[in-house]
What does this fold into?
Amino acid sequence: MNRVVITGLGPVSSIGIGISEFDASLREGRSGISRITSFDPTGFPHVCAGEVHHFQPETILRRLNPSFWGRSTLFAAAAARLAVEDAQLDLDQVSSGRVGVVIGTTCGESAVVEALTAEIVERGFEALSPELLHQSPGNRLAHGVSEELGAAGVSLTLGTACSASNYALGYAYDSLRNGEADVMVAGGADAVCRWVHAGFFRLGALARDACSPFDRDRSGILTAEGGSALVLETLDHAQARGARPYAEVFGYGLNCDADHMVAPNAASIAACMRLAHHNASIKPSDIDYICAHGTGTRANDSTEAQAIREVFGERLPPISSIKSMLGHTMGAASSFGAIASVLAITGGFLPPTINWTNPDLELAGLDPVPNKARPAKIRVVQNNGFAFGGNNAILILGACA
Amino acid sequence: MTSLAVTGCGILCSVGIGLDALAGVLARDCEANPGPDVGDLYTDALPSPTGHALVDLNFRQLLGRKGTAFLDRRSGLALIACGRALEDSGLRVDDGNRHRIGVTLGTTWGSLKSMSDYTKESLLEERPYLVNPALFPNTVMNCAAGQAAIWYGLKGPNATIAGGQLAFLSVLVYAANALRCGYADIILAGAVEEFTPHTAWATHQTQPDKSPLTAGEGAAIFVVERSDGAKSADRHLDAEVMSVVTGFSPGGEQSGGMSSALADCIRRALAKANVKPDGVSFVATCETGDEDQDRIEAGAVTAVFGSADVERVLVKKILGECNAATGGLQLATLLVLHRDDPSRDGHISLITGWTRDGGIGAAVLRGWSRVSSHHG
It folds into this structure.
């Protein structure tokens, strides 16, 4: 079995494009929330989201022509390109068949599907344009990344909703561990769209203008977008090319609530944590920081805290939610969490939960790293990802020994 | 490492439910047919009066009334097929094994209709938030797999793969990894595609003018497990997955390199299975019967097998454009050939797939009849 390390980070987010901006934002506790421009939010009582305003894919991408690809794919491909650059990886020096791509998503090319829907509404089904239809399938996300990188290995889009990029990172880890690839680029992408905003509002799970996880008065998520990718390599491959590994992947756990499509289940999440710890050969007491799923809904944060208590007992590590800054980037969320976890390990700090004002008695004993980043020595991180459909995925990352 | 076993299947396609329905049409003819009259399925106009839909399917009759009110067609198809697959394998789900049984389902968009209708409702309602909250879960890609887990109580790893026409082969790759790594003992692995005005028009608008291909639908779900597990549980071995390989050909169908990349992929799958081209007796492809559209796959098959006498089935010719479900239906045709015919026991088959953007894949399988009671 090969050891697997992370050597490149590529965030394309509302709080920064590229690793230095993203890192600075996490340390400063910057919010990426603004008034929606992706669609006309007129008529919605809540009109804010975490959009990536200054995204110019043509300035990042080398091979993809942005006019032929949808917004989600462009997020994924730009993130992948940034991650490969950050890893200082010359892909011409790697056999292309040994480079694979795995991208997670919740809604795939949602912006394209909404553009198609506009065609249907305005002029009927006969008006559906072949160009947009070709851009619409979910497999385009991974294929766009493979195309951008000239990668000939596996090209997989995982549609496991809001934990999808933890699934992607896990699958990439397995492929490297088992020797099926030398380099894997894994992450996630989604775009802000009308139907998800409407759906969460209607569920009563959408905050007005600030997402405040673990706060007594938390009122829900803010939908958000972006792409986030990490370069994973076998330790041998990284060392052979003189790369500096940021962190090591220790393992992950997957399970399914098989209980309810939208409500999380504490016992099942606790079981998933135990699976992840077991697969990573660690104990709860080894974990220095939990990068929470932390959506900011009443149900998620209470359930997540309850599950953590069940597994960790009295000694809880600090638990923060970067969704307080980014909003909920859906399929990209877990891999943004993974990037934040890596930065926490290498930079020696705990990313904060911003917008935090009032402690919630129900969550007593939980340290959400309120409002300000804190220096800390962090060796092992647990990155939580949960999703509709009860698709739980938890990733364990650690400092390179 | 032990190989993977297919020990049961649940198949739905336009010709009916189960392998028998498919066997009937495969025996009759493999000529293109337009499918049944679909005029009564939807109020929206459809691009053609016929299509490859399960026009008489009664979801409530098959699944019961409880819990089905808000299911979309895709999830309904998945639930029926998962139930049939469990039944066909004889696998009983209980508290002792449910956390070790996972689901991996392939799709193209998720439910394009559910996603699009949600946006449409928001655009057309008096207030943009007057959408139905009960339908919201249908708009996420993993709805069908999540519903299957709830319906049958399957707590193992639950995954959804968006792969278009390559989805099923990617599902096999993903499921094989989960089984090999020990994350699960058994996986319901398959792919689902629904027939809706959205998919019917999507197929229509993206076909060349003279193509006879119309949209179809189907669900093909298989019980997949490690061969040693199947053996110790004494379940029928319907097929053994000897190898599955997927990859990507940069440049996609525009590049001119797709066909040779797919041929290489087939050769790698054969080598991994330790099979020579002349050891293959049956090939199921995604071909449509339209020469121009089929040139990539037909070219790859010819490059590998030359003029050798290999039996071929073109599932799309008889079942329509089933997108993600196509690969699962390719495997279903293979099981049809084997199930009641011991003279084919141990014969080796190949399944191929690709996407226009550059995805490629191939799987090598060995099939067995149930007449000879070949057990895992």
